[in-house]
Amino acid sequence: MKGHGMLVLLLHAVVLGLPSAWAEEACTRTCPLACACSSAEHGCTVRCDRAGLLQVPAEFPCEAASIDLDRNGLRFLGERAFGTLPSLRCLSLRHNNLSFITPGAFKGLPRLAELRLAHNGDLRYMHARTFAALGRLRRLDLAACRLFSVPERLLAELPALREFAAFDNLFRRVPGALRGLANLTHAHLERGRIEAVASSSLQGLQSLRSLSLQANRVRAVHAGAFRDCGALEHLLLNDNLLATLPADAFLGLRHLRTLNLGGNSLGHVARAWFADLVELELLYLDRNSIAFVEEGAFQNLSSLLALHLNCNHLTVLTWAAFQPGLFLGRLFLFHNQWRCDCSLEWLRDWMQSSGHIADVSCTSPGSVAGLDLSQVDFGRSSDGLCVDPEELNLSRSSPGPSPEPAATTMSRFSSLLSKLLAPKAPVEAAANTTQGPINASLSDSLLSGGVGDSGHNTPFLLHSSLLLSVAQHVMSVLQTD
Predict the structure, then answer these.
(1) What DSSP letter does each residue of 374-390 carry, written as one string?
(2) CA torsion, points 88, 93, 98, 101, in degrees to nearest 10?
(3) pLDDT in tens, 19-32
(4) Are 26 and 63 in contact (CB under 8 A)?
(5) Of all residues in the chain, what percent are helix, strand and coil, respectively (each to 5)?
(6) What are the structural domains of the chain?
(7) C-alpha Rg value of the chain to the nearest Å
(8) Closest of 247, 211, 248 to residue 229, by C-alpha
(9) Is the sign of the CA dihedral 350, 352, 353, 358 positive or negative?
(10) 101 contacts 77 by C-beta, under 8 angstroms
(11) pLDDT reported for residue 94
């Protein structure tokens, strides 16, 4: 009985292993010579990358689920270039030299879900029927193909398309082929030459959740440009040329979670811009020229986790910009020109209580320049009002006119007295003297016994003695004060 049980288990193992063995044998049986084929959990994988191929192999395993032809020298795809591959789901042709794709090149691939054509720099034109019959395609990658435009009907054949990657191209406007793609969720259009987002650019994209337009040349976003994008969660407009925005630029984007406007030329922040963004979590306004934030600009951003205002031209930020909302997230304010007076006392208190703000370096007033705002002390006047640091320092050190140091005062008085006591040189001597002491000290004048060789200096000495007594009295009074 025991031996019989072992035999049954062995037979089960053999039977269960047969499909796997058959799949592996079927995957490798027709593998192209320059490729490596293997069967895994997700089906038969064919790797032909970096194989030096100049044309598509004539035959692939019928069971192929993924084919990688990256980094070869392919230049042309003819009719049914890959034959009939009913299981193929992913086809990658990145980093080749493709210059033309025949309409119908992808026929025979009914289950293809992902097509990667990125980094084919000579593929500057595509026929409107290039992707005909790819009704199940979900992801299309056309990045870095030096495309100037996308034919209006090119993507209309792709009703299931979810993700479109076309960054690093030469578009001057948002491709019109995107309009009406009701199932599109992600569009990557960064690092191009797009100059504007027109009111019709994104029509019909009601499922769009992520749109990247960063690092283009966008100077204008037209009013209502995103009105059809109510599902949008992430919008990247950073590193463009925006100097202003229409009041209703983001109207209707109630599900937006990330908005990046950093690296533009915005000079102020308007209250109307973010009125609808009740679910916004990350707002980037860094690296602009912002000098003013309107009252209530952030008042509706109750879900905000981080606000980036660093690297701008701000000197003041009032609490009124946040009221009546309550913002408890992180606030990035470094690299601005902060004037740390009483208008920023609320921010100092917030820094000390929440710990979500740091590096607010004071540029002015001079009494606190170079300090961090968290180190600034604000005084109180007798009626409880805040006193600016500059006024506070003046009131502490200078309650009245600043008295001169006694030594300086006596020195100046002695110098003046010396001038009064100094004899006037004869005209002849003065004419022949090019330089000499301008002022003589009081002791030198007295020791000299006057001036001249005539010896008639008694009246001068009497006057000197009288002036000396006066000087001593004045200096004693100054020392007492």
Answers:
(1) GG---EE-TTS-EE-HH
(2) 20
(3) 566 678 889 889 99
(4) yes
(5) 25, 15, 60
(6) 29-170 (3.80.10.10)
(7) 42
(8) 211
(9) positive
(10) yes
(11) 98
3-state SS track over 62-81: CCEEEEECCCCCCCEECCCC
The pLDDT value recorded for residue 357 is 86
The residue among 86, 42, 46 whose CA lies nearest residue 62 is 86
Distances (CA, A) of 253 to 136, 243, 244: 29, 21, 19
Q: Two tokens at 222?
A: 């037209």
Single-letter amino acid code for the residue at 464: S
The secondary element (H helix, E strand) that includes residue 259 is strand 258-260
Q: State the Cα angle at 227 between 226 and 229, rounded to 5°.
A: 65
Q: How many residues does the chain have?
A: 481
Give the global pTM.
0.77
Contact 74, 100 (CB under 8 A): no
Task: Name residues whose C-beta falls within 8 Å of residue 189's C-beta, 6 or more positions apart in sequence.
Answer: 166, 167, 171, 174, 175, 211, 212, 213, 216
347 CB neighbour count, 10 Å cutoff: 21
Angle at which helix 458-480 crosses helix 406-421, to 10 degrees, equals 170
Strands 210-212 and 196-197: unpaired
